[in-house]
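Propose amino acids for all 421 sites.
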């Protein structure tokens, strides 16, 4: 009788390994992050094994020609981006992102309002994507701000989709992926996105569910990337997801965004630590240690913050990220993305999201000491920066099962190169 228990345990562990190592389906899910040259983070340092999609940002819009261009400074890095990141992960898909937060918004509005200029934009974007080895294109127009601009945005997307379909048919090449980074909600300060055009034209949208508060644009301190807002008095990722779905965009076309860099305040005097209040995750860890800062995880809004003296810092740590990953999976979203990979500290946050999102697909069996049967357990998640805890499952199991629970926690800590399924 006792000899069957180790055999069953080995079978369970083997089954667990099998599920964990199954190849990912990169076309059905998105586990992405953005990279941009100004971060000074080398492309060769990106651990692409944590991602299904990587966004190379940003190509520019020439306001005179309405063509998409890559600066001479960025051209060498853009042209080798796909080749470089595929060394670690041959299946990762790359998209060339166009625009960005500091891009000329008027130039995008002007381009999108005219059929000739839209064609120049579309044709040049496809040409650049192909010549630089990208698998897709990502539009980051922040943001169409009137009903007319939203209508032009929808028209641009429809024509863009038709063009990439035609190009693929004419060249017998796989169709370029199309995505867009959009406001966290379908309602941009009472101006509505053309949800139907978005749904029929894009493969997915990246919801920028962050930068809700920051020293450069808000007068009060608040969670910069709250998933929930119980009072409904402020922005939140969940409110944005619900708004997009209610507008008609399927959940499977929504990708939830979160930041890998914090927002900082020095009491009420503005930004702290850096001029604009924006630095990397590694620097916040150093700040906490150097200043003996108090750290707090707010499970209600799903966000972390720390404070020392007059400095308050809002950010996402491991627990916030895996909670958001769980939310994305439970809501049936297409996946998640982060801004930006260069702000991560030794890929710690990217690894946390990657492993947990993969584990959410797994149900495996544990041998129960009494009854000689297998019992299905829910997967478990991170509960701190360094440890993991069990979510779901059952209580009251005998010592052998409790030992296995500890062992399976150790197993997950070993899987730092798991790919998303």
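Proposal:
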């Amino acid at each position: 009788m006792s000899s069957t228990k180790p055999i069953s345990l080995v079978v369970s562990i083997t089954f667990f390994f099998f599920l964990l190592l199954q190849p990912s389906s990169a076309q059905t899910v998105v586990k992405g992050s953005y990279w941009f040259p100004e971060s000074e983070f080398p492309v060769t340092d990106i651990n692409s094994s944590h991602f299904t999609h990587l966004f190379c940002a940003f190509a520019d819009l020439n306001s005179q020609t309405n063509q998409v261009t890559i600066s001479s400074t960025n051209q060498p890095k853009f042209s080798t981006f796909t080749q470089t990141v595929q060394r670690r992960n041959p299946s990762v898909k790359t998209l060339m992102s166009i625009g960005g937060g500091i891009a000329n918004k008027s130039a995008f509005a002007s381009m999108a309002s005219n059929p000739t200029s839209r064609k120049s934009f579309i044709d040049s974007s496809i040409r650049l994507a192909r010549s630089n080895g990208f698998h897709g294109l990502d539009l980051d127009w922040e943001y169409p701000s009137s009903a007319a601009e939203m209508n032009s945005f929808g028209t641009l997307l429809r024509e863009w989709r038709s063009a990439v379909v035609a190009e693929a048919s004419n060249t017998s090449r796989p169709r370029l992926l199309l995505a867009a980074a959009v406001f966290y909600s379908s309602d941009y300060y009472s101006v509505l996105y053309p949800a139907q055009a978005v749904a029929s034209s894009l493969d997915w949208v990246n919801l920028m569910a962050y930068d809700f508060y920051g020293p450069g644009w808000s007068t009060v301190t608040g969670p910069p990337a709250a998933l929930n807002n119980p009072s409904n008095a402020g922005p939140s990722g969940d409110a944005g997801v619900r708004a997009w779905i209610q507008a008609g965009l399927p959940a499977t076309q929504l990708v939830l965004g979160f930041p890998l860099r914090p927002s900082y305040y020095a009491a009420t005097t503005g930004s702290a630590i850096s001029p604009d209040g924006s630095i990397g995750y590694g620097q916040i860890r150093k700040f906490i240690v150097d200043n003996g800062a108090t750290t707090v995880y707010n499970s209600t809004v799903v966000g972390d913050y720390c404070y020392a003296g007059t400095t308050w810092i809002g950010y996402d740590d491991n627990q916030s990220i895996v909670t958001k990953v769980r939310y994305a999976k439970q809501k049936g979203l297409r996946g998640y993305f982060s801004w930006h990979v260069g702000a991560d500290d030794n890929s710690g946050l990217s690894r946390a999201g990657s492993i947990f999102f993969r584990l959410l697909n797994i149900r495996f069996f544990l041998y129960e000491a009494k009854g000689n049967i297998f019992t299905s357990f829910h997967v478990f998640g991170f509960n701190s920066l360094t440890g993991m805890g069990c979510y779901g499952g059952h209580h009251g199991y005998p010592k052998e099962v409790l030992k296995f629970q500890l062992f399976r926690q150790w197993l997950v800590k070993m899987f730092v190169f798991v790919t998303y399924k």
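Confidence is low (pLDDT under 50) at residues 1-13, 15-27, 362-421. The chain is about 35% helix and 20% strand.
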